[in-house]
Amino acid sequence: MVIYLKAGGELRSKLQPDVDHFTRRVETEAGKPLSDILIGIGISPAFVAFAFKDGQLKRLDYTPSEGDIITLQPPVSGG
Amino acid sequence: MLSDKEKERYSRQVLIPGWNQEKLKQANVLVVGLGGLGSASALYLAAAGIGRLHLCDGDRVELSDLNRQMLYSESSLGLLKVEEASRRIGALNPSVAIVRHNAYLDSRNAAEIIAGCQVIVDGLDSLEPRFILNQESVLRGIPYVYGAVQGWQGYAGFFHPPQTACLACLLRPGAFKPDRVPVWGVTPGAIGLIQAGEVVKWTLGQNPSLQGRLLIYDGASLSFEIISVEKDPACPVCSRA
Question: Of A23, B52, B73, B143, which has fewest CB within 10 angstroms of its CB?
Fold first, then answer.
């Protein structure tokens, strides 16, 4: 199945977007959690704080569905 | 009761529908961390007339702080942040009572620092003490106004379990952190002021806009996105409280 990953902030360079400046098309097996999909495309889950889809928080154990557009957000720790 | 001077000082904001200056005067607000976020939130909360500001930081002012920490100036270098912040805030609004905690928040002193406060503002610069603050806020039922920044990006949220999720529903330990977090002044300024606004809304008895939600700010593209943060049934903090 195909999903689309978008990245915010400093994650963009790690995602290597190929659809537009923010988005990467990813082919993956159905039933895989997001954390495994990230590892499969070479992104350590430690570089992703959380994700969201349609305005709702999605944790890294979320299992995407065909055509999902998921935005990844980096850890942000400064003050 | 507001003095004549206070009535004059706040005369423009009391014109805002729903404003209640007396409620702000009665408020006890804790700002933990007096860096970029804490500088912005503490200054604006003081200017707005929060009655008692509890300030917590164990650090001293360094030259590399001055690009973003607007509480300080070159004459502050080497001095305790909590003392300099108190002086600056006192000069801005002497009617604000300041409670100083010259300490880094940790699991041993958190309960003492938070005691007597009605709302917590996060001005911290690392995740570990944020989890301590979050845990204390859940245990005591005190709202926790989260903020964090890096580069051009910032997050802000208002967590108040059991009505909302908590920080541990959003984040888990173990995230990557660079040795030196890149940051410039506008990012913590923007997020710190949003935090201050949420504190004031809550103090006035209004619903904070970020209650159970997270603002994702990206100054590079100037985008603001707000997402819902649902409670995590497996949250190690608020699901057990």
Answer: B73
